[in-house]
Design brief:
globular, eight-stranded mixed sheet, 192 residues
Length: 192
């Protein structure tokens, strides 16, 4: 019996290693609760972390004026979702959380995300709430110190994975490995 348990335990470790190696997918050893955070979605509606349920969420911090990381991430996510089996795709929601709330109004998010035609969602809000969410998800960003002119915002290029019970499950590290994600993301979702 102990041999069987050791085998099961080591095969799980191999799967986690394979997920990390082939998909840059890092699964946490234990799920983490998210703090209560109140943000505004791209429709102007209030959203709380309690509302992150009933789907698998792939969240990342970015901003609509981002010249490179954000458009690449959203394009890759659109491609990934388009290749996932329909039953898996229906369970996944991609969310861009703004690291630049001064420019990223709900309307700006709605317009920007609409370019991707992938039903992506967007969240914005007050800097303290965004920083609280950033810390909980392990996705750092540095808020702009000046809102004058054409400024840039530093942010993580990783994505957080939140399960259907609203807990942080892991991260997808950049650079995105779409072939590996196509293989392992359905396994993660089906295993719940």
């Amino acid at each position: 019996m102990l041999g069987l348990l050791a085998f099961c335990s080591s095969s799980l470790a191999v799967d986690r290693e394979a997920m990390l190696e082939e998909a840059n997918l890092l699964i946490l050893p234990r799920e983490r609760q998210l703090p209560d955070v109140e943000l505004i979605d791209e429709q102007g509606q209030t959203v709380t972390t309690e509302g992150l349920s009933d789907h698998w969420y792939l969240l990342f911090f970015g901003f609509t004026a981002c010249p490179d990381v954000c458009p690449t991430t959203l394009s890759d996510m659109r491609r990934l979702l388009g290749q996932l089996p329909p039953d898996v795709r229906e369970q996944v929601q991609v969310i861009l959380i703004s690291a630049d709330p001064a420019r990223d109004t709900p309307e700006a998010l709605r317009t920007y995300l609409g370019y991707y035609r992938a039903n992506f969602k967007g969240l914005t809000g007050e800097i303290p709430e965004l920083q609280k969410m950033s810390k909980a998800l392990g996705l750092p960003f540095v808020a702009a110190t000046s809102m004058e002119g054409d400024y840039n915002v530093s942010h993580s290029s990783n994505l957080a994975i939140v399960g259907p019970n609203g807990t942080l499950r892991g991260h997808i590290r950049a650079p995105l490995k779409l072939d590996g994600l196509l293989q392992f993301l359905p396994q993660l979702i089906e295993a719940k």
